[in-house]
Design a protein that fits this description.
Aminopeptidase; about 40% helix; 32 strands; alpha/beta; TIM Barrel; eight-stranded parallel beta sheet; 32 helices; about 20% strand; single chain; Rossmann fold; about 950 residues
């Protein structure tokens, strides 16, 4: 029998119980059915998927979830049920309640608003609401890169076609969900962003990109999200993969995808959830029994079966049969069980599951969430073009002129007031006769389709206090009724919804546009506005459409925001997603911003807010932003001149950008530069950079300028990971980047279990190397002379600072023959004053204060033979680790390690946490760049001091 962990309940020795935890199932209906009750009680089902078909209101949902958890509790489940929900916002929401649950923009809409901080707040608000009714797992965020944006059904559910932007907003959403206490599930691995569809409903869409292509694009957000350590689950899609190195019919049934790619290559340790095995193509080709076994064999921990009870029973029997046939081992089952139970422990407990706060909490938070919803939609609406200056309508039209609204027939969104009204009407109506069914066989769909935009027309008429005509259009094209209305109206608004996939909409719009042009040529007033209420790609690049607006979804809230834009209630700030945004903003990047000197009293709070926004938005390549504060950058060192700069909003006191510079003994240093994620692409970074360089190059006695600084040690240089864009930015500015010095931060994560490599001490002793620890400046002359001879002036000041902190810092010296000094390193106890200037030495918000960090900083070894230099370095690190252990540190961070020193430290068990490239130039070279920056277009504006995925264009 497979051995259980000591902390696992002995109940799990019963494989029926363990198998029940490997399944996630749903059903149709708003009440608990005998079937779902039986699955929980008799088959020990551990996870439930709720959909819009289960949920009528917030109150009903809370009651339903509480009943499900009570059934599980009474049936003896050791842990509560996982209750999962698709609540992506935009058009994909399973729970709708206009009184208590707020609507927010789609993922692409949030990206259009240009603020990852807003995305964080939206995710946190969404998760807080669904958590209040008992949901503990949000199936999100969507991490797909919309590589082939024009023809993919995923549409606005994806952030954009830029993998770094998808990473940025995906991680912001993950942080929001986690801070609200729910589990997260990235989707749809490996990607639904560029699928080929073969035509038949039974055909499975396929990925044709090679693994190399996927790695450079589609897999980037998944890799970055996994690296945060906050992604609890991964939804593995059911698509096929066909390329030279892989031929897979269903990704979720392939060990090449789940075990090899997801786990081994990307390092995912959480719960893998399969696509629903009830999908027709899979059932027809493989069968549910075999498919369930294949999913588990592939590495999936939770197998999804959405609603068919007979199919669900078939899956359960399939798993049991897989065990009997020895296709699935008990060890494999317990591996998945541990992952699922670990996720449950992180997001739920019996007291929480049995007593969801429900309406009492929702009613308290609803006003603030409603305000956030309105702001999010107002910020997301994007006016892409208004060449004819038609907006606002109140200025371009007289009140008595007629406005025509032409809308397509679309199905109402599952969670909307219209759908709710239709379902209520259906439940009240009597069963229709056969004649009524035939006579009105298509009428229901048509009426509901018209109804989606009916309120838009009414709201628009009320807002402009004028007459509005409204009718729908279909694949039948421009009919006489349309021609008559177009002849009457002065302005025509055409709504499209995924016109790239519903080509009749594109054809209809082109036809109407041509008619308007002809009528204008004859002297009539015929203005045309096109509004995309889904994918912005409909007419993004079609300049023949002079006024083009995107809303990114057609929820009631989005349509209300659209009306406010059309009538001039506010000016839209939204932008196109991804590469489309970059291509448009290249022209805007020449503007100049007013740069001011940093004022601590005025700007410190704004800088802290800016840093928090960056920390939420940043990818895991720089985890220490969250421990950086405004105080980090101020050294108050008499030997170092500081000059810091800001771009700010003088009305709101918000900081849009910050730059820190230092000057010490002829070296001018650019130590940090940040720009608000919501203010990218508009030259803030360039303005700060230009001002900083002007200040540094005018210093008397300047000999060189440098990118990166160890004191303060936020950024040691340009982040080495994926830094091509950063380097191009500086190269365009005149910097010579040919000869970098590679630096790294390294760490030992668990100090208690670390042991010195066998034979290291003996080797050090044979080399006659001895060590001592000193404090204070009184007996530090030899140390300072050594540092000055072998390092930069800012490192010398770092040593001076550490030696002055006699209670928390010291310097270890390595000595050789005749007491000659071979090397030095700074040692910091947890909570040292030096940690205030070196964020990697501080525990992050996700870590516990009772897990202190010890510091080993700036090892400097005198030139000697490679063998002796390595022994000196390893000896210094060993003494540092011993000191950290003595001060009760849980882990050690070794900061500012030069590249040639990394290898011997890796042999000791250190891992590289971050790598940087420090650059120095002559001031004459860089001063030329100030002029270049003012005129030359920059290729891509990534920036020195930020996680590469965060800074997509500061130029």
């Amino acid at each position: 029998m497979a051995k259980l962990d000591a902390d696992l309940d002995p109940l799990w020795q019963d494989l029926d119980w363990a198998i029940g935890q490997m399944l996630i199932m749903g059903w149709d209906g708003t009440e608990v059915t005998p079937q779902i009750r039986n699955l929980i009680e008799q088959h020990h089902l551990g996870s439930i998927l709720l959909t819009a078909k289960n949920l009528k209101s917030a109150h009903q949902t809370a009651k339903l979830v509480q009943e499900l958890q009570t059934i599980a509790h009474q049936a003896g489940h050791p842990q509560p049920l996982l209750i999962a929900l698709d609540q992506e916002n935009g058009g994909v929401n399973s729970l709708y309640d206009e009184d208590y649950i707020c609507q927010f923009p789609s993922a692409m809409g949030q990206a259009a608003a240009g603020s990852s901080d807003l995305a964080y707040k939206v995710a946190k608000a969404t998760a807080t609401e669904v958590s209040a009714v008992g949901v503990n797992l949000v199936l999100g965020p969507v991490l797909d890169v919309l590589t082939n944006a024009r023809y993919q059904p995923l549409g606005v559910r994806a952030t954009s076609d830029d993998p770094q932007e998808v990473s940025q907003y995906g991680i912001a959403a993950i942080n929001g969900y986690k801070d609200a206490g729910v589990a997260t599930c990235g989707k749809h691995f490996p990607s639904y962003g560029n699928l080929d569809f073969l035509g038949s409903s039974l055909d499975i869409p396929i990925i044709t990109q090679t693994l190399e292509e996927l790695s450079l694009s589609a897999l980037v957000p998944f890799r970055n999200a996994i690296a945060t350590g906050k992604l609890d689950a991964m939804f593995v899609g059911g698509c096929g993969i066909t390329n030279p190195s892989m031929s897979v019919n269903h990704a979720c049934l392939s060990d090449q995808v789940v075990d090899d790619l997801l786990r081994n290559e990307l390092g995912f340790q959480g719960v893998a959830i399969s696509e629903c095995l009830e999908m027709e193509g899979l059932r027809t080709e493989i069968g549910v029994k075999t498919g369930t076994v294949m999913a588990v064999e592939a590495g999936c921990d939770l197998v999804l079966l959405c609603r068919a009870y007979d199919v669900q029973l078939e899956a359960i029997s399939g798993l049991k049969l897989g065990v009997e046939n020895e296709l699935i081992t008990k060890e494999r089952i317990y591996t998945s069980l541990r992952r699922v139970l670990r996720m449950k422990k992180s997001c739920t407990s019996w007291p929480k599951a049995l007593n969801p706060p429900g309406i009492s909490l929702l009613s308290k938070i609803h006003p603030s969430h409603l305000a956030l919803s309105l702001k999010a939609y107002d910020d997301s609406i994007a006016v892409i073009r208004d060449n004819e200056k038609l907006l606002p309508l109140t200025s371009s039209m007289h009140q008595e002129e007629e406005l025509l609204l032409l809308t397509p027939l679309v199905k109402p969104l599952p969670a909307s007031s219209l759908t709710k009204a239709l379902l209520e009407a259906k439940s009240r109506s009597e069963t229709p006769t056969m004649h009524e069914k035939w006579a009105h066989r298509d009428r229901g769909a048509i009426m509901s389709g018209e109804g989606v935009f009916r309120e838009l027309g009414r709201s628009l008429a009320r807002a402009r206090h004028g007459k509005l005509l409204h009718t729908s259009y279909t694949a039948n094209g421009v009919r006489p009724v349309h021609e008559n209305l177009i002849n009457r109206a002065s302005c025509i608004i055409i709504v499209t919804a995924d016109a790239n996939r519903n080509l009749y909409q594109a054809g209809f719009t082109k036809h109407v546009s041509m008619m308007c042009s002809m009528l204008r040529a004859s002297g009539q007033k015929k203005s045309l506005i096109v509004v995309s209420v889904s994918s912005p790609y409909d007419f993004a690049m079609d300049k023949s459409v002079g006024t083009y607006i995107c809303t990114f979804d057609f929820t009631e809230t989005a349509m209300a925001a659209l009306v406010r834009v059309l009538c001039g209630k506010f000016k839209s700030q939204g932008t196109l997603p991804g590469t489309l945004r970059k291509s448009r903003k290249a022209v805007k990047s020449r503007q100049h911003w007013l740069v001011e000197a940093y004022d601590r009293n005025r700007d410190a709070r704004g800088l802290d807010d800016l840093l928090q926004s960056l920390a939420r938005a940043s990818a895991p390549a720089h985890p220490f932003l969250q421990t950086t504060s405004a105080h980090t950058f101020e050294l108050f060192n008499p030997n170092i001149e500081e000059a810091h700069y800001v771009v700010r909003n003088s009305s709101t006191q918000a900081l849009y950008g910050f730059c820190a510079t230092y000057f010490v003994e002829g070296t001018g240093i650019l130590g940090a530069l940040f720009v608000d994620p919501a203010k990218r692409n508009v030259s803030i970074g360039r303005s700060l950079h230009r001002r900083a360089l002007r200040g540094l190059t005018q210093k008397r006695g300047i000999k060189k300028v440098q990118l990166g600084m160890p004191f303060p040690g936020v950024f040691l240089g340009i982040p080495a990971d994926d830094s091509a864009g950063l380097k191009q930015w500086f190269a365009n500015g005149g910097w010579d980047l040919q000869f970098p010095r590679r630096l790294a931060n390294m760490a030992i994560g668990t100090l208690s279990s670390w042991k010195a490599p066998e034979g290291l001490l003996q080797s050090i002793q044979r080399a006659n190397i001895s060590f001592d620890l000193i404090h204070g400046l009184d007996n530090a002359d030899s140390v300072l002379h050594h540092v000055k001879a072998h390092s930069n002036p800012e490192v010398l000041e770092l040593y001076r600072f550490a030696l002055q902190e006699t209670k928390t810092c010291g310097v270890v010296r390595a000595k050789g023959h005749a007491e000659s000094l071979l090397g030095t390193v700074i040692i910091c106890s947890p909570g040292s004053a030096l940690a205030g200037s070196i964020p990697p030495l501080q525990p992050s918000a996700s870590e516990h204060d009772d897990e202190p960090i010890g510091g080993i900083v700036a090892p400097i070894v005198a030139p000697s033979t490679p063998q002796q230099a390595n022994l000196v370095l390893q000896g210094l690190a060993l003494m540092g680790l011993r000191q950290n252990k003595a001060h009760k540190a849980v882990r050690s961070v070794l900061s500012w390690v030069q590249d040639d020193a990394c290898e011997p430290l890796l042999a000791m068990g250190f891992e590289v946490v971050q790598a940087f490239e420090e650059f120095t130039n002559s001031p004459d070279n860089v001063s030329v760049s100030v002029a270049l920056l003012a005129s030359a277009p920059l290729m891509m504006g990534w920036w020195l001091t930020c996680v590469v995925s965060q800074w997509q264009d500061l130029a």
